[in-house]
Design brief:
The longest helix is centred in the middle third of the chain and has 17 residues, at about 110-130. By secondary structure, this protein is an alpha+beta fold. The strands form 2 sheets. The protein has a 6-stranded mixed β-sheet, with helices on one face. Strands 4-5 form a two-stranded antiparallel sheet. Helix 5 (about 110-130) links the parallel strand 6 and strand 7 (about 140). It is globular, with a radius of gyration of 16 Å. The chain has 8 helices and 8 strands; from the N terminus they run αβαβαβαβββαββααα. The chain has a single domain (about 5-180), classed as Peptide methionine sulphoxide reductase MsrA (Peptide Methionine Sulfoxide Reductase, Chain A). Helix 4 (about 75-85) packs across helix 5 (about 110-130). It catalyses: L-methionyl-[protein] + [thioredoxin]-disulfide + H2O = L-methionyl-(S)-S-oxide-[protein] + [thioredoxin]-dithiol; [thioredoxin]-disulfide + L-methionine + H2O = L-methionine (S)-S-oxide + [thioredoxin]-dithiol. Has an important function as a repair enzyme for proteins that have been inactivated by oxidation. Catalyzes the reversible oxidation-reduction of methionine sulfoxide in proteins to methionine.
């Protein structure tokens, strides 16, 4: 959905970096009110980077998802809650199996209200005692977002067996079970 298509719809955008973008689409995609989830690159200094360029760590980008959502059906706070439950917010070197600067976590805010909510949710998570280490997920202003190559879009639907194998082997599912699911 282009920005022109968004105008007048009442839809808003949320942008999150949570490591491998393949693993960040499905958790958002199934919620009522989520219009689209696009895998892409943001936060860097090169226009229209490729996957190979981003993975090289030289462009400053992170893998991210940009969510278009209807705030009358799902609140930004709910999206934040979903985001935190998909990542290890204490890892400054990447996420799970994926290491390096392009796999760091971040919340990219589009409005002052999103910034306020993101900062409050980060502070609440730190104060909760759920994690022993500091929460290192950055909160940054949103900038240009470049959709990833087509083969990365909706990967969990296109390649479900590969997706499930990768997600499980990466350590993400075990981490989520250990830190978020009821004991």
């Amino acid at each position: 959905m282009t920005s022109e298509a968004r105008e007048g719809t009442g839809y808003e955008r949320a942008t999150f970096a949570g490591g491998c973008f393949w693993c960040m689409v499905k958790p958002f995609d199934t919620w009522p009110g989520v219009v689209s989830v696009v895998s892409g690159y943001t936060g860097g200094h090169v226009s229209n980077p490729t996957y190979e360029q981003v993975c090289s760590g030289t462009t400053g980008h992170v893998e991210a998802v940009q969510i278009t959502y209807d705030p009358h059906q799902i609140a930004y706070q709910q999206l934040l809650d979903i985001f935190w439950r998909q990542i290890d917010p204490t890892d400054p070197g990447g996420q799970f199996y994926d290491r390096g600067s392009s796999y760091k976590t971040a919340i990219f805010y589009h409005t002052d209200e999103q910034r306020r909510l993101a900062e409050a949710s980060k502070a609440a998570l730190q104060a909760s005692g759920r994690f022993q280490k500091p929460i290192v997920t950055e909160i940054r202003p949103a900038g240009p977002f470049y959709p990833a190559e087509d083969y990365h879009q909706d990967f969990y639907r296109k390649e479900p067996l590969h997706y499930e194998r990768y997600r499980r082997a990466s350590g993400r599912d075990a981490f989520i079970a250990a830190h978020w699911e009821p004991k």
